[in-house]
Specification:
This protein is an alpha+beta fold. The chain has five helices and eight strands. Strands 1-8-3-6 form a four-stranded antiparallel beta sheet. A four-stranded antiparallel beta sheet has the order 2-7-4-5, with no helix packed on it. Helix 1 crosses helix 2.
Length: 171
């Protein structure tokens, strides 16, 4: 995977988010197989996720130790060009943070019976706030303009973490 020139500080190679290889490195041992992801790999991935989250404007003032619970529930998401990230009229399933790529927001122009681009999003932008605040339906659709690497925080996990963190609740 290559860095996008517009990626700035977010141009991070996401190899640490790749699923661990399931190869058993101790094939000739009589002990139980080694788990797919070691504790060290998980810790390293968590540190990288926390570092990425700290660069997002929503989380810049949140202390690192307060980001640990968010990093623990954060998942990597990949969208192909044309994928719907958020569907008009639906409650977004969580917070999507674009690491690399671009998306555009579409609204229906009723008088002309067509969709128009309202806004464009790129590296560092957060999508899906309406789903986090009162589980509101999103008024527009957001579509991937090109392949996107993103972090995804499920709404139910976000709510649980916010309820237990004063710093995150005020962010």
């Amino acid at each position: 995977m290559t860095k996008s020139s517009s990626a700035g500080n977010f141009g991070v190679i996401l190899a640490s988010f790749a699923p661990p290889k399931s190869e058993d490195t101790q094939k000739n041992c009589s002990t139980a197989p080694i788990p797919a992801a070691s504790t060290l790999e998980k810790s390293m991935s968590m540190i990288k996720t926390e570092a990425l989250l700290q660069r997002i404007p929503l989380f810049t003032d949140v202390p690192t130790d307060e980001l640990v619970p968010i990093a623990e529930v954060t998942q990597k998401s990949i969208y192909k060009r044309g994928d719907t990230i958020i569907r008009r009229g639906h409650v977004p399933p969580g917070l999507v943070i674009i690491l690399n790529g671009r998306a555009h927001e579409l609204a229906r122009n009723v008088s002309e019976s067509k969709e128009v681009i309202l806004d464009q999003y790129s590296t560092g932008d957060c999508l899906g706030f309406s789903g986090l605040i009162g589980a509101q339906q999103h008024p527009t659709s957001i579509i991937a303009s090109c392949p996107i690497d993103a972090l995804f925080v499920p709404r139910h996990s976000f709510d649980r973490v916010i309820a237990s963190s004063a710093a995150l609740a005020s962010a």
